[in-house]
Structure formats: structure tokens, C-alpha cells
Amino acid sequence: MYADIIIDITHEKLDKVFQYSIPSHLEGMLKVGTEVVVPFGRGNKETKGYVTGFSREAGYDVAKIKPVAGIAKDSVAIESKLVALAAWMKEYYGGTMIQALKTVIPIKRTERVKEKRRIRLLLDEEAGKKALDVYLHKNQKARARLLAALLDEPEQEYELLTRKLNITRAVVRALEEQKIVALQSEQVFRNPVKHKVREREEVRLTDEQRHAIGVFWDDYRQGKRENYLVYGVTGSGKTEVYMEMIDRVLKEGGQAIVLIPEIALTYQTVMRFYGKFGDRVSILNSRMSQGERFDQMERVKAGEVDVMIGPRSALFTPFPNLGLIVIDEEHETTYKSEQVPRYHARETAMMRGKMEGASVVLGSATPSLEAFYGCKRGRIKMLELKNRATLRELPAVYVEDMRKEMKAGNRSILSDHLKELMEERLKKKEQIMLFLNRRGYAGFVSCRACGYVVKCPHCDVSLSAHKNGKMVCHYCGYEEPQVNLCPSCGSPYIGGFKAGTQQVEELVKRQFPSARALRMDMDTTKAKDGHEKILETFANEEADILIGTQMIVKGHDFPNVTLVGILAADMSLYSNDYRAGERTFQLLTQAAGRAGRGSGKGEVIIQTYSPQHYSIQMAAAQDYEGFYKEEMDYRELMGYPPVEQLLAVLMTGADESMLETAARYLKEFAQLADKDKELQIIGPASPNVAKVSDAYRRVLYLKGGDYKRLVEAKNRMEQYIEINKGFQSLRIQFDFNPMNVF
Ligand code: ADP
Ligand code: ZN
Ligand code: ZN
């Protein structure tokens, strides 16, 4: 046996695993993750490294392989644990050990990253203007320039501003000494000027909340670390529950990680945690550079932080005494990585929890089928919050059948009922949100007169219109020519569904010329903080109508919104994806939850061509369990996750015919290797976007009842790909239980 060892895991050049032999006195003592001492380089310098795996055969000349010298004495246990987690991720999700290690361990940058600093005005407007007058009077132009800019915008990026205004360090120092400005590093969570920090009101937990915490705490105190799902509608007080759980874990000397989807990682949310835990809290976000992340992790190792909040990647925070991992909005698709290894944070958190003795608490109003199924099978304990914490009524939901609107001669994007309610809200000076569902939109073909959608006869997912005039199934490759008349009712109004936020905005402006409308989509949020700014404008009631994509569904609370219009609810329903129904239900439920967060009673209008679809019906009735039953029936019938397991093999290459051949070979190999015929192997098909920047793509799907069989198949394919030259020019990735079809 040989040990694969990686030297200096935090180094940027983390790109090679070295083989060492295992001397007899260490036999059986090394595990994946063990920190060892090995002779390295020409001088055989004693160097530390981590065991990342084992192999039976020597990769090169046996005579040149050196033996492991010993196990490191003062090893950093947390890194061993993360290396072991990486090894599990490599096995469970595919890819190389190096890719897995780079995912879990922050890499040090060789070049020094410059610290980004912010400059902040310490005076209020009045005092600031006085000081400005003084500078102008004394003809201190540079000081005046700086102060005027800060009066415009009290907090700005230091380097940028001083360069822009041509201000020297000395000028800044003078203002610092006068206590007019202060510099602070980006890491400090910022913006105390623009937002008022609300004092934390002590809440009296409801019986339901106390019960949920009690169940968790009884287990925890007895040393039982389990997985839980806090299942409760928006506003039921889940966040309060997490915070209480964390508080108790911290008091026992443990640490906690809180995963929140980036889009919901708003100032409001973060301040709630700050309010309770003060500066023991730290935050990660995707805008941080590698250096900044590395520094954060160093702070964690130094014991300065006990609670880390962040998106998916915060899961790998190196807490030595991790007691709890919370995953809020666990159903969010962003918890699945799009890079190799394509891990899911939910499963990986459960694995880390198991390895390190930490509990995992998932939370959602609309749990993923995976989590709910986990509860039904006893893998996850359900903690239910049935009521809203603050006795607010749920909104009234109406479903508008757009086929009827069409028959009645209304071809507009807005139904008559929605227009009517909008007018009424504008009169009452209440706010409106219009949500255009464009998630997962992939060019399905539907009839506006009867709602018919063209589907694959084999897979029961919708066909996608391609530019070549064909409609194609992205699972199995089935195709047929595009239709001009509806096969169901003969109407010519059949085609792709096209409407963008911009068109909606134009229409709204024409319909309601005196209303102030804001649009939030990819275009209007490109600028830094663009997203926050729009939400803030709307929160300050400087606009009446907010039009947007799924971005507007999360995060901020808008107490004055009493009407939510969901345009084109169908758009996500017929994406060519087995998760379409689930995604639609979640989006509609969340969007509906936006109405009536304040004192006013909310109303929600769902516009659809498929009012009979269970995702829409159950969302309108706010009936998760009803939805769950229907959706599980469908998954079971079709053999989709979570009932069965699915492995997508994505293949990319520059030469299409070679790619096609390779894909067929790989399929054949997978079929032959599956001796007991336990797997169903589908494809190769052309993905949604068959060609991206001159590279063609193909995808194979493997389906089976047992995840382990798929892992074995993946391992065999990885070996086959490695030894066959024909695959060398292709890029091949594995994706287990993918979030979308490719
Ligand atoms: P969720 O995370 O389930 O959406 P939150 O924890 O954000 O719910 O709670 C929603 C609102 O209700 C928040 O403003 C919160 O401060 C408040 N809240 C939660 N629990 C209580 C309670 N026990 N008493 C009073 N207010 C509460
Ligand atoms: Zn029709
Ligand atoms: Zn098909």
C-alpha cells in the first residue's frame, strides 16, 4: 500500500499529490486526513503533509518512493477533518482530490492582496456642511472636495474615491485627526450610516418555537447530533429559532455555521445576528477575494469568531468545535455547486456534521422534496412551526385563467382583475410587486388559447424549441418538427412564451402613467450594490410598483406591499426539467408570501394558462403537503430523485462528431459495466444550449435506485476515460442529482 500525500494544503500551487510508502510501524495507523511528516525535495527536508488517499500500485519507479517518516505531533485537527471531508466529496460527487481540496480549504495567495478600505463620514449633514463652509472659506480645496463627496455619499471605497478626487494621504489624515472621517476595512460589516441599527427587541418565544428548540436541545445535551428540518411558513419565526439554538450551542463551547442564500444575505438579516451575537459573528460573501477569505479563515482558526454566516462555501469554515450547521431556505438551488466537485451543501453539511459531531438544522417554508422525504424516512427530524409568530393573516390568493382573458379579447400581459386591483392600490398609496417568473425558462412551446404544452412522449418533460425548427427533449434526445397549429385545439396562438421585465415595465407605464415603477433584473442590478439600492428605494416608498424576476422574491420585508401579481406562472412550470413543478410551487409560494407583511391584508394574483396544474393549485391554497403528495407520485412514476437517483455525465468538445462518438462509446461502456442491469442509461442528448463558445455538448443520464451503484459507475467511467486516448480532448464532468437539466 502507498499513501497519497499532499504537501502544504494552503499553498496556491496545490496541484500535485505525492506517493510515499507506508513503513511497517505505521501500517493501519494512517487515515485520509492524517497529518504526517515526510521527507521532501532534494535534501529530504522534513515536511508536513496530509494523507489524501491510498493506492495499491506505485505510480512510478518503486525504488524512488520514499517512506512516510511519521505522524505529525501537534497536528491541526480541523484540517485533517476537512481533508477527510474532501475525500468524501471526491468519491460522492466525482472530480479529482485536488479539486475537492481546493473547495474545502482556503488557498493562500502568494502576492499580497491589498486590503480594501472604506472611508466614512462621521458627521451628520448639518455639521458636515458647516465644516465644508470652513474649508471653503480657508480655501482648503482638497479637504473641501473630499468632504463634499462624502456629504453626497457618506461611505465610499477609499482607494477609488481618493484617486478620483486626487486626494493625498495627508489630507485624509488631517480629516481623521479632526474626527470628521474614519477609515475602516471592508471586512467590518458596514453601512451604519445609511441604515439605522435597530435595537434588538427581546422576543418571547411562542410555544411552537420553544418546542422546536426543546427537541433539538434535549438531543444535543445528550450528545446526540442529528439532522432537523424546521418547517414553517415565512414569518413563523424560524430565524428566531436558529438564533436560540446557536446561543445555546455557543454557551456549551461549540461554534455554528449559518448558510443563507446570497440573495437573502441582506443587511437586515445580518443585523439580526449581529444584534444577538455581536462581533463574534463574521460574514463571507462571494464578492470577497481569495485573500480576504483566507484572512477570515485565519481569524476563525485564531478563535476570534464563533458564528459564520455566508452562502454555500461558508460550510467549510474551519471551526475546531463545530456544534451546529444551519441551512436556511434549504430548498434553494444555489446550495448546489456548479463547479467540480458539484456538491450539494445539504448533503455535505450532513456529512460534515456526522464526521465532526455537529447537528444540522435545515429550514424552509417550502422544503425540498429531498428534505421532506428525509423526514418521512426518519433521516431528518421534523420541527414544525404551524403559525406565524406575529398573528398576521396569510394573503388571499386568486388564480386568473389567461386562456379566458384571451377568449374575452384581452391579449395584454395583465389580466383585468390584476389591473383593477392595481388601480385600487395606487389610489390607496399602497405598494405593488409584479413578479415575472423567468426561472429555468428554456423555450417550451405552449398554446395561449388552451394551455396545451408540447411534451416528450417518453420523459414527460416539455420539449424545447431549437433554432433549427425542431422541438427537442433534453433528457433522451427525442425530437420532432415544430408545430404551427395547436395539436389540441387547432389555435394558431402556439409558440414560445416571450415577455421580459422591460416589456412589463413599458406596459405598466402606459397603463398607469402617474405611478412610479421600478424594475429589477439582471440589467438594472449590474452595478455594485445596484440590487440593494433598488430594494432600498422601494422600501423607502419612493416607488409604487416593483417589477422584477425571482430576485425580488427574497430578502427584504416591505410592509406596505399589499398586492403581488405573478405574471406567467407557467414559465417555470414547463421548463424541460423534472424539478419544474417543485420550483414553480416554491416560487409562487414565496412570491405570495411577499404580500401583506405589514398590517394590511394582502392579495395575490397568479396568472396562468394552466390553472388546473397541481403546483399552481397547491401554491394558491398554500398547501405544501398536498403539493408534496402529487409531486412525489410523479417522481415515483418517472423514477426521478429523490425516489431514484440520477447521474448526469456532461461532455464537452470542439469536434462534434468525435464528441458524439465518444458519448456513444461511454454509454456502451457504462451499459457493459452495469452487469446486473441495475441502471437505466439514457441519451446521449444535446443539452439546452448545445454549443457554447465553440464547444459542443452532450449529456448522458444514468438512473438507478441506489446512489452507491451510481458512484461505482462514475468510478468505472473515470478510469475508462483516463486510459482511453479518445477522451483526452474532451471535458467530462459528473453531476449527481442535478438541479437542472443541461
Ligand atoms: P422566518 O425566518 O420563519 O421567516 P422570522 O424569525 O424572521 O421568521 O420572524 C418573522 C418576524 O416575526 C420577525 O420580525 C421576528 O422578529 C418576529 N418574531 C419571531 N418570533 C417572534 C416571537 N416569538 N414573538 C414576537 N415576534 C416574533
Ligand atoms: Zn390549444
Ligand atoms: Zn425524452
TrEMBL record:
Molecular function GO terms recorded: 3'-5' DNA helicase activity; ATP binding; DNA binding; hydrolase activity; zinc ion binding
Keyword ATP-binding: yes
Co-factor: note: Binds 2 zinc ions per subunit.
GO (cellular component) term, any one: primosome complex
Binding site for Zn(2+) 2: C456, C459, C473, C476
Residues at which Zn(2+) 1 binds: C447, C450, C486, C489
Cofactor dependency: Zn(2+)
Stored Pfam families: DEAD, Helicase_C, PriA_3primeBD, PriA_C, Zn_ribbon_PriA
GO annotation, biological process: DNA recombination; DNA replication initiation; DNA replication, synthesis of primer; double-strand break repair
UniProt catalytic activity: ATP + H2O = ADP + phosphate + H(+); Couples ATP hydrolysis with the unwinding of duplex DNA by translocating in the 3'-5' direction
InterPro entries, sorted: DEAD/DEAH_box_helicase_dom, Helicase_ATP-bd, Helicase_C-like, P-loop_NTPase, PriA, PriA_3primeBD, PriA_3primeBD_sf, PriA_C
EC number, UniProt record: 5.6.2.4
Keywords attached to this entry: ATP-binding, DNA replication, DNA-binding, Helicase, Hydrolase, Isomerase, Metal-binding, Nucleotide-binding, Primosome, Zinc
Enzyme type, top EC level: isomerase
Function statement: Initiates the restart of stalled replication forks, which reloads the replicative helicase on sites other than the origin of replication. Recognizes and binds to abandoned replication forks and remodels them to uncover a helicase loading site. Promotes assembly of the primosome at these replication forks.
Family: Belongs to the helicase family. PriA subfamily.
Subunit and interaction comment: Component of the replication restart primosome.
Protein name: Replication restart protein PriA
Protein source organism: Clostridium scindens (strain ATCC 35704 / DSM 5676 / VPI 13733 / 19)
Phylogenetic placement of the source organism: Bacteria, Bacillati, Bacillota, Clostridia, Lachnospirales
